Amino acid sequence: MPQNISKIKKIGVLTSGGDSPGMNAAIRSVVRACNYYGIVCCGIRMGYEGLINDYVVELGPRSVRNLINRGGTELKSARSQEFRTKEGREKAAKTVKKHNIDALVIIGGDGSFTGGTIFQKEHGVPFIGVPGTIDNDIFGTDYTVGYDTALNTAVDAIDKIRDTATSHNRVFFVEVMGRDAGFIALNSGIATGALDILIPEEKDSIEDLFIAFEKAQEKGKSSSIVIVAEGEKLGGVYDLAKFTKMKYPEFDVKVTVLGHIQRGGSPTVADRVLASRLGVAAVEGLIAGKSNVMAGMQSSKLVFTPIEEAIKKHNEIDKDLIKVADILST
Amino acid sequence: MPQNISKIKKIGVLTSGGDSPGMNAAIRSVVRACNYYGIVCCGIRMGYEGLINDYVVELGPRSVRNLINRGGTELKSARSQEFRTKEGREKAAKTVKKHNIDALVIIGGDGSFTGGTIFQKEHGVPFIGVPGTIDNDIFGTDYTVGYDTALNTAVDAIDKIRDTATSHNRVFFVEVMGRDAGFIALNSGIATGALDILIPEEKDSIEDLFIAFEKAQEKGKSSSIVIVAEGEKLGGVYDLAKFTKMKYPEFDVKVTVLGHIQRGGSPTVADRVLASRLGVAAVEGLIAGKSNVMAGMQSSKLVFTPIEEAIKKHNEIDKDLIKVADILST
Amino acid sequence: MPQNISKIKKIGVLTSGGDSPGMNAAIRSVVRACNYYGIVCCGIRMGYEGLINDYVVELGPRSVRNLINRGGTELKSARSQEFRTKEGREKAAKTVKKHNIDALVIIGGDGSFTGGTIFQKEHGVPFIGVPGTIDNDIFGTDYTVGYDTALNTAVDAIDKIRDTATSHNRVFFVEVMGRDAGFIALNSGIATGALDILIPEEKDSIEDLFIAFEKAQEKGKSSSIVIVAEGEKLGGVYDLAKFTKMKYPEFDVKVTVLGHIQRGGSPTVADRVLASRLGVAAVEGLIAGKSNVMAGMQSSKLVFTPIEEAIKKHNEIDKDLIKVADILST
Amino acid sequence: MPQNISKIKKIGVLTSGGDSPGMNAAIRSVVRACNYYGIVCCGIRMGYEGLINDYVVELGPRSVRNLINRGGTELKSARSQEFRTKEGREKAAKTVKKHNIDALVIIGGDGSFTGGTIFQKEHGVPFIGVPGTIDNDIFGTDYTVGYDTALNTAVDAIDKIRDTATSHNRVFFVEVMGRDAGFIALNSGIATGALDILIPEEKDSIEDLFIAFEKAQEKGKSSSIVIVAEGEKLGGVYDLAKFTKMKYPEFDVKVTVLGHIQRGGSPTVADRVLASRLGVAAVEGLIAGKSNVMAGMQSSKLVFTPIEEAIKKHNEIDKDLIKVADILST
Fold first, then answer.
1. What is the ipTM of this complex?
2. What's the whole-model pTM score?
3. For chain B, does the N or the C end have fewer beta carbons within 10 angstroms?
4. Sheet containing B56-58, strands listed edge to edge, beginning at the edge strand earlier in sequence
């Protein structure tokens, strides 16, 4: 075990915002890395709520055994209104002081990182962020923890829907998660051979969708799946289904909203390994004196991105991939 | 190979009504059993629509290879309005005559069997039914083909929802399939440790649900899943969520409708084996001169039930199981 | 909550012998049922080893939360040599006395039940058995806890093997678990369309296997899977592969032993519900004064079978099912 | 549809060498991309064997429907001895001429690409390679088609093994695929919290393994999984188990060889999307006049690598990842 000569003797770890598969793997990684470097690790339950209300528990390497493959977050997560207030953050600072916590690892998304930044500015608590969200929309990392699992869960579900769509010559509108980002929609659409994929990043029109239906009919395609991202600008799946039925009364149109199943489940290997790397990196980064940065992987290399940049910019959809989707739906 | 000395030289097989996982395994079994007994087998596509419109194709043992593990139905299914008319059934009878089909195997549910019965009365075409539906509500068999798969799909999904429910201390209302029957709801509720299970067979009241919430809070249960069958009399999941939120504004209440994912997917072993047995049984039954009956398994024994009985009666929910659910949710 | 007027105030629960998926669901059910009936419940870790060495821990309803869907057994299991000695059982009796345990629920197989019977005779500790084993070979219940999961795990794996077998026109010998019983082999063989299925209950000859290969070749079947139960009398998979390669040097022959993956994994719905019912039944049986019996389900009815009978007799393979396998492999 | 003004009017596609999940998705992509660009597409069955023996079939966009999610390769694969001879390749050239095939897309690994290169040199048939192998050891692409699926299959299986290992306090040696490369071993080891991971790229010693066991015991770890790559230099899993048992007779040591299950199964999203991109890229590359190159993705960018380079060099294991494994196993 290497000697820890840095000022960091105690690290607190918390999960914040919407939960994502692999958060437990990230927690485990932070705890074990702390142990490896001779740092005490505290788990803070319920995100920033726990910081405010002193829900703090010491975690040793054995307390995170058999955790790597579990969905959800054992530390629980929450969206804290109180932490948005100066008073809330002052209470949180007292908890940090009381436990002699030298730095935080914050596992979450944009909103959670913003909270951490304000807290750091006001109370001087260093932190490193680990991107945990299924939406994959955080700049500074190719993938976020939870995205690969959510994507595979969506595709497993759409595969099942396709079985019944094909058996009945039906048109299915399937809504997948992604409020501002079409990553899950685009990739799940390609992976399931969707007729059309509607994402927030693209200006889609209902006429384009109708053209797609007509092309499909010409080619003898008898059933179709249309993937729609949650944040799609054209309207929700129910409206799209209604308009389609009005235009093509002979179609047997159905709607499925995949919803929260996309947030749970045992993480895929990619998410477990990513979470493991970033958890270790966050601890090593804090030891090295870094703060206000997010740990991410870009082109298989570890990269620390200033939090401000990670929050401001966004991962962009690959235009080539949209073209591939177009070619393959023919 | 045994000699076939019966009058049955050619059998037609079709899938009708809502599709269910295992229908392909049943088709394969009928085709292979026909081959074994020296009978020609024809697949009729699109259910009774195919009978009306002469969508008939001969199937040999190799044409059903690699089919046993696929969801949906390769013969496709449909609900035929035309077959409900005398004229429609006359067209269907011509198709039967044209192809010298001596008997039919009808894979489907109540409605499909009713159609077969009328057709048999009017045109003298013998048939045997194979119960294929995810609802498990057909009398004369302990389980229907597709039920076990749908149930496991529902539980896989609810397990994922529980991950996120637990991480956020949420209350989730999850709607599962079952228009008139609570089999999927009751069993998936027990299997996922649901707080409460609302099924059409029971008179549930919203007050009982509220009592369950309060008991749970007393015991320190911080998240809850309530399973609601599609056909539940008390109202849909959205209404239940609304009333709950009105009563307990502090609850974080979410809704998920599992929907059509429950109809697809590779069948479980139980469904594959059941479909395999019943497909063989249907062919052997027709050879033995039976008609107007449904093949089913009761207590691991093959049973032929008169179709009229299968349609009139319904499988009943096991009262003991409701008590078990009650004991275990404490 | 009903009043408990029986003499049973404290129940100990343990898992013993080979572990099986669903044991955790059974433990949870025993703990919750005890709670429901006002009985204190103790978990005994490591099977009879824990009884000897006083590994006893009190379990409340919250201590078994989120346990129903986990593979393995949280109480751990072991095969105890010491419990086979009089001295060992005397130590165990002291532990029982020390904790005022009035009765035991023993989750396990034949060997575990034999141990319980001897212990009961010598030291007067009542017990009820819950059949937990993947082999499904225990008399007095249609299915044992863990069997359905193991079977589905085996079939998932064989489906994958079939993908590669078909891609390469290969012959695969796949060994599945079942030392004395062919339930997993026969059912997984039917469910995956195996060419041949070799089980301990049948006298198979290598010549019959060769005939099956030749029939398959005549019919143009280009790849084949042969399922072999662990306890098959004809020899292991490696020998069978060797003989086959000697007879047909042109075959591309491969071997896979599925092994311990069949013992783990999240239990299927059938196993969760079965475990839930039997756990409640065991507690209710002890309250009603029963002992030395095993709780089981036969034809969907709860049945208590004298342990001696459960040990002596064995579930028998369904001959009809062997015929179905034969018909469908054509 | 864009106009195809290149000389490429007809493309042949084949899968060669060991099969991998996602090959079907790649075939589909080649066929659909050809259709999109107005090129006729021929499938060649059984790899180079099919080229020699004229197993050629025209494929339209509908002939690859419902193929993207299937394991294995519908075109079948083979290792051809005859294609290694000049005579074999001459026969193959005749087939190419006979069907007016202008170029080939070869989906496979190192060996398959070598074959394509020689064939191109001798007979002037342009080709582009698509890396399809579970081993992930091909230079010029971050990931090969099939690797992500194989890795997830391995981890699913090891998760199950861990359930039973933990229940019994056992030591399991698990062999995963990877003849020359430790990618599956290293990543599955991290993802399952393995005690130790033995890969061909590292000089492991049995003493290091024993030290790992002793550290684990000191820390109270009661069960352990050791992942061993197929090509590990120290010896096979059976030998390692034997040596371990000799050193620690009190250990309950078990062995599992995961084997061919790692080659099958429905591909993950990553593999489906990768295969889709590379299939389109291969067709577009041929249209653009490229040949003797492999299409790959590096840092989410499409890259064509000269085949010679792809064959000579190898993807290297990430040293940082080995350190992460080391930190987390503590």
1. 0.95
2. 0.96
3. N
4. B56-58, B40-44, B10-15, B103-108, B127-131, B293-298, B301-306
